[in-house]
Structure formats: structure tokens, C-alpha cells
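User: My collaborator sent over this chain with a note saying "see what the structure looks like." That's all I know about it. Can you take a look?
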Amino acid sequence: MPTLRDKLRSVQSMPRCSTVSRPVPQDCYVRETFLALPERASIADGILSLMQGDPSIPHHTDPAEMLFLDTETTGLSHGAGTVAFLVGTGRIDGKGIRVHQYLMRDYDEETFVLKRVLSDLDKCSVLVTYNGRSFDMPLLQSRCIMNRISHDFSTIPHADILYTARRVFKLRLRDCRLSALEETVFHAPRADDLPGSEVPQRYFDYLQKHDFSLLEDILAHNAQDIASLARLTFLLAGLHSDPLTAEHLQDIYSLGRVFDRRGKAHEARVCYRAADAGSMSGLSRIRLAENLKKSGRAEDAVNVYIKMIRAHQGGAGPYIAMSKLLEHRLKNIPAAARTAMDGIRFVADMPDTDENRAALEDLKGRYARLFRKMEKRPHDI
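Assistant: Without extra context I'll predict from the sequence alone. Here is the result:
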């Protein structure tokens, strides 16, 4: 039976395992692509800040100083295992956009990708992304921390166009994914595009097989995303500069709501009046009346409610709102009472729903209170 010393000798005499080391990477893979843009890249002063509702965005924005950024990642979470293996950045160059893509061919190239991106960010005045505020930038921030790279992304003026697109198009278009907007807004569906959901697995396949051709579809997908992001940004900038150029009433109405939120009452009214047609008439008039009330134009708001009542728009809402205005702003108690009574008669003929019952109770209580006021002041009747 071999002793312990014999066993140790046999282990020491075994040949050592040889390891094949990968060369230390000097950089990540870099690709440059130029893509033509159908429209002129221009943006009026103050428009990008208006679109975003963000005063930190410079009033004057030179398109050539904007950096459009998109990432391709190994997952959709912000967990430690999710990596941005490809980051594309784009800059306006003449009649198109010049895209630089930084790809890590293996995990040890991630630092080079991040440093390349940071170098591009240092040269821009505004960062433009599509859902980058919620996903891309927090992920890049966490990856910098993991790689011990000090950089605060929150200091960069950032325009996230996803939220702008939703505000303008969501009423008309349910799907506001970038690829969907290419089809519905630009009427240019992608041909043979790799779905975003397949990107992570394609990259994992590449890591196993080291077949670079597996990445070509990802690189093309990413470059197209950046070009479409730039195109969408300038389209939306044009709509905010001149909202009546929008082709659809829903979009004009939605732009009016944006102006209302930004405190631009006049511009909002222009949109609401322009959208006052067809199926958008009722919604536009409701917003127009609210806008006029906030602007201190009670009589004009009453006239809008009269139009709605005559057109049977808004159910009991116009009666209630108009009665309130007549009572509290215009101090016309008899007219407020008559409007409440007209509303009672109107709702009485409507279907028996919870909403209509609540409106009827409101109008009855309002009329009773107004009637008591008139009894105390008979000279007003």
C-alpha cells in the first residue's frame, strides 16, 4: 500500500496543465458608418428644452453638437450581470448622421467601450436617447462603477425622446416603440431587421462560436436605431415649432396639451381650435374651455360650453362647469341656476349609470343652493 510520501511524489511528477492565454486587449472593436437622413437636421432655439420640459437643456442647440446614443445589452435589467456590449453614438454630419459603434468582442474589452463612450459624451452639448433616462444611462453608470471609472452621467443635459414621442403620438398610436414609429410615422418599415428581443442570445452565440458574422445584424440594427432616433427628434422639434403642420388632429390636440403643461396658454389654444373637428371636437373644446378659465377668460369659456351643450358633447360636464363659472366668476346667479336646471333635464334622459347618477345629484344640489340664493336676493331674478 503506497504511503502518503509516495502519493505526493506521484503528484509532483505529473505534467503541468498548459493554458492558452488570450492576448491582452488594446481596444474594443470600432465601426464608423454614415447614414443619409431624408429631412434637414434643424431645431429652433428653445424647442428641445420645451419638448423635454427641462431648463437645463441649452436654449440654443446646434444639431452638430447633439450626441445620439443607443445601447445593445445582454439583458433588460440593471443587475450586475447585464452589460452594454455595444454602444452606438451618432452625430449630425451634413445631410446625414455619422455613427460610431463600440463593441466588446469579449468581456475584457468593456472598459474600452466605456472610455470611448465617455470621450464622445465630453464633446457634446446635449445627449439624446430613446428611453435612455430609465435604461441606457443608469446601466452605463453602473458599469462605470463596476469598472472603477469615475463619471457622473447626471450632469449631461439629456433629452429622452421616448417621453416626447408618447406625449405627441400616444393618443393616435398605441405602440410608441422606435421601430413601430418608423412604420407608422415615417412609413418606412424595416426589412430583415433583427428583433430586439433576439439580440442578447445572438451575442451569447457569438461569444461561444467567435463567428463575427453573427454580430452584423446587431450592428445594423443599432445603427438604424440611432438614425431613426435623430430623424424622430428633428420631426418632433418641427412639430413643436409649428404644430399646425401635423397631419393628424389627434397629434395637434396632443401638442396643445404639451403647450398647456409648459405654461404656453396661447399656443395651446391655437392647437385646440385647430383640432376642433370630427371626433376630436369634444376633447378639444373641453381643453380649450379649461385653458380659457385658467387664463381668466370666463366669458369665452362659457361660449365654448354653450357650443358643447348644443352639440351634445361631454355629457353633463359642460352644464356643471358652465354653472360654476356663471356663479363664481361672472356672478350671474340666475343664469347659473338655469344652466343647472337645463343639466338636470338633460341627464334625466340619459342612461341610468353611476356617472350620470352622480352628475344628477351634483346638479340638483347645485340648483337647490342657487335657488336659495335667489330667494334671498329677489332683485337678481
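A starting point for your reply to your collaborator: Residues 315-381 form one domain.
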